[in-house]
Amino acid sequence: MKAIEVVRNARMSDRFTSIDYIHLLIRDFVELHGDRRFGDDPAVIGGIGYFQGIPVTVIGVEKGKDAASRAQRHFGCPLPEGYRKATRLMKEAEKFHRPVLNFVDTAGANADVEAEERGQGEAIADCILTATGLRTPVISLIIGEGGSGGALALSIADRLYMLEESYLGVISPESCSSILFKNPGHAEEAAEELHLRAEDLLEFGVVDGIFPTIKEKNQTTRIRRFMEKAVPQIEQNMRDLLSEDPEKLIAERAERYQKMP
Length: 261
What we know:
The protein contains twelve helices and seven strands. It is of the alpha/beta class. It has a single domain (3-258), classed as 2-enoyl-CoA Hydratase, Chain A, domain 1, CATH 3.90.226.10. A hairpin with a 2-residue loop joins strand 2 (44-51) and strand 3 (54-61).
């Protein structure tokens, strides 16, 4: 599949969102709100629950399902308070030695004036720094779009997975085309040059595996495929990582990213 087709499919409204995956995978989920500095960001959903009997902290970027919910969650483009909420929840997870499970689906962080005034760049940087040195396991899944630093903030992990027809890139193909070609009409060419498909990133060693995507069409079949492949892999990762010494965990995480091309 062409890279631009992957990007378009990642943006389709019929895909499962973070809330859907939380309901599917997490038992007794309790949502937690707020960054304790400014307010709550509905684009970032976070809380605690159980994954296969393991107490976990869950953080996801949520786009919404229809026009009203997408607007309410500002189309999955987190504000600074969203990243600060994620940082707060990661630190809480570290305190209780709970693994962190992230669901990433964002075209990028919110870039409006108010977000910048409230310290968007600092909030993203602090989230990345926290994840890098976290003394508890982190597993992240790119479930749709993975755009720029907005996605990177929740993609620093011991194990990083992508779903089929999802992407992870430093910039959108349209924006890249506007910069390189001074014309957004070359998005297809830009998408190929960005190497943002799951199979590309698996080949480069950026991600650790690819899981099936769940869409409304053929949902039962897709859920079964996802559960059969993803759940055992994630559970084994969690149990293995939880048994590691925290200092070793941090060192291995640092080495992982230092080796990336």
